[in-house]
Amino acid sequence: MPSTEPLTRSGLNPAASGWTSQRTAWLLFGPPAFMVAVRWLLQLMDDRQNTVPALALAPVSTTAGTLDLLWPVALVLALLVAAGLVIHRLGWRRVMPVIGAVWLLLWLAGSGALVQRHFNRQGLVLQGMTAAAPAPVKARVVTAQSKPASLRSLGGTELVLQIDGLEIPNRLLIGDAGAAALKPGDTLALQLAPGRFGGLFVTGWQAAPPVSPMMKIP
Known about the structure:
- By secondary structure, the chain is an alpha+beta fold.
- The chain is built from three helices and seven strands, in the order H-E-E-H-H-E-E-E-E-E.
- It has helices at residues 14-48, 66-90, 92-120, and strands at residues 55-56, 58-59, 137-147, 156-163, 170-174, 187-194, 200-207.
- The protein has a seven-stranded antiparallel sheet with strand order 1-7-6-3-4-5-2, with no helix packed on it.
- Helix 1 (14-48) runs parallel beside helix 3.
- It is elongated.
- It starts with 13 loop residues before the first helix and ends in an 11-residue tail after the last strand.
């Protein structure tokens, strides 16, 4: 017996059309909501530990020329043009499942990166400099500037440090009010600890007193 359910002008069943719209809505808003929930749970875990996580060191990227700055933009434009050509040739309906899968994988990868970053510094707590701690590493302040609070951080003083033993300068964000007095040329003593999966973290820091020329050994 033929179906007696009404059809739209396009010949589609309203129930099927509604199901498609619902699936599209879940695909658009479900992955971002999942990532927000993961971020909230990780923050809740940090708050329950009543400890300040160690400060992450981020290597400062260096560029060799204008080409190094423009190639990411050129790559994105090339991908957009290629995607447009594929959609024009195959049709939106055929490409839509692939786009949906890529969208879902991108948000899942972002959620996985949040979890990996959380457990990478698990157990690393920001502490003061103690006698029992490993020997501190000297670092020279290259630049220092105030960074306002944002959705990603609470703000503080952002330093670019040249650390002994590391060729590339590293960026460090310190929320302590005492770091606001630091200026280029100052010397810091840092306690460094490796992350569980990679990277370096500062577990303790203090400003080193300047060395007078009369105190230098010839």
